[in-house]
């Protein structure tokens, strides 16, 4: 619904003032992000309860590979839509297509048989579960360490848009060339998916987390060095590696 609302807002953007238009778009983005956070929690919960550990490992790895290919295909489609259709119709088409894709994906979740756990059977309320979170974190060192690691690794993901901004300022890139940089990043997601599948078999997902932490540490340094002293072709490596980091982050966060 948030995406459909954004499509309608974009089509009728000329009817609103600047402040009203921005307010609507930010509200719809907030609604989409808020609902996406709950959907993500539900997805991880179903994934953890419905599949055995050995099957879950294979599912997470293969899912990331398929997702990478899907992202690459969708990027090509989006690029074509933006070129062939003018604003604001192009964004309306993209938002509507994204809403339809999410609807199909949501329908697939209803096919999964979700087993009941002890908490559901005991009838513990939602608020009781929320109140128990601090105690669970204190008593479960594994959970506490995971929360710390996940938040620290999230910093590397937050920095990704700044690599694009730095490239635009340093090399004076136009929008088409920036799009090419993002395609290189998506290629990194696709290619690294096959690599992480082998790495996870040998080192496990904790080993994959260590590699992700290393990539997150190296990337800002490489971006600064390549962007300051080397031409654009070398800077492409930053986006290729960042794509690999995104793939590792998604794979390890779901599995660990």
Summarize the SSE layout with pairings.
Blueprint: H1 2-11, H2 18-50, H3 53-84, H4 89-109, H5 118-122, H6 126-139, H7 141-158, H8 160-171, H9 175-229, H10 232-255
* Strand residue percentage: under 5%
- Radius of gyration, whole Å: 21 Å
Biggest sheet architecture = none
Helix content: over 70%
Helix-and-strand structural type? mainly alpha
Total beta-strand segments: 0
Word description of this protein:
The relative contact order is 0.10. It contains ten helices and no strands. The longest helix is centred in the C-terminal third of the chain and has 55 residues, at 175-229. The chain has helices at 2-11, 18-50, 53-84, 89-109, 118-122, 126-139, 141-158, 160-171, 175-229, 232-255. Helix 3 (53-84) runs antiparallel to helix 4 and helix 8 (160-171) crosses helix 9. With 256 residues, the protein is mainly alpha-helical.
